[in-house]
Amino acid sequence: DRDVAQLAQGMPLSACWRPPAETKRILKDLAIRYLPAEWMHRRKMGFGLPSSAWSKEATLDLARDLLLAPSGRLGGLLDVAALRGLVEHQARPGCFSVYQVWPLLILELWLRRAMSG
To answer: Which of 3, 28, 67, 90 could be 40's S-S partner, Cβ–Cβ 3.0 to 4.6 Å?
Structure first.
């Protein structure tokens, strides 16, 4: 929106943020009108993947189906043996990490979509 862009261009940088702790100042100043103030001032919190709701076996089956398939796009960009080794390592007891497998699955799906046309 041009009006929003013009408004933003006219604001001093100090109104927008003060590094390192005061980021997103305008958004927080607006949000504090509607949300509890302590939410705006708490430490940054990420959000995790719902790995406890996912089955290790189902996730690894999906990884094998997508990442190790002959039609897999990552296999054309990476060393297939290394990719296979990673999936096999994840299957070992105590080695599974959804945070290592999930990004590869998402990248594979994105590559398939991007390269399909």
So the answer is: 28
pTM: 0.60
Closest CA to 105 of 45, 86, 79, 52: 86
Residue 95 is predicted with a pLDDT of: 95
Q: What is the pLDDT of residues 27-50, one digit of tens each?
A: 888 899 999 988 888 887 777 777
The amino acid sitting at 82 is A
Measured CA to CA, the distance from residue 90 to residue 96 in angstroms comes to: 4
How many Cβ atoms from other residues are within 10 Å of residue 98's Cβ? 17
- Higher-confidence residue of 106 and 26: namely 106
Q: How far apart are CA 104 and CA 89, in angstroms?
A: 14
Q: Taking the CB of residue 86, how many other CB atoms lie within 10 A of it?
A: 16
Start-to-end Cα distance in the chain: 31
Longest dimension (CA), the chain: 57
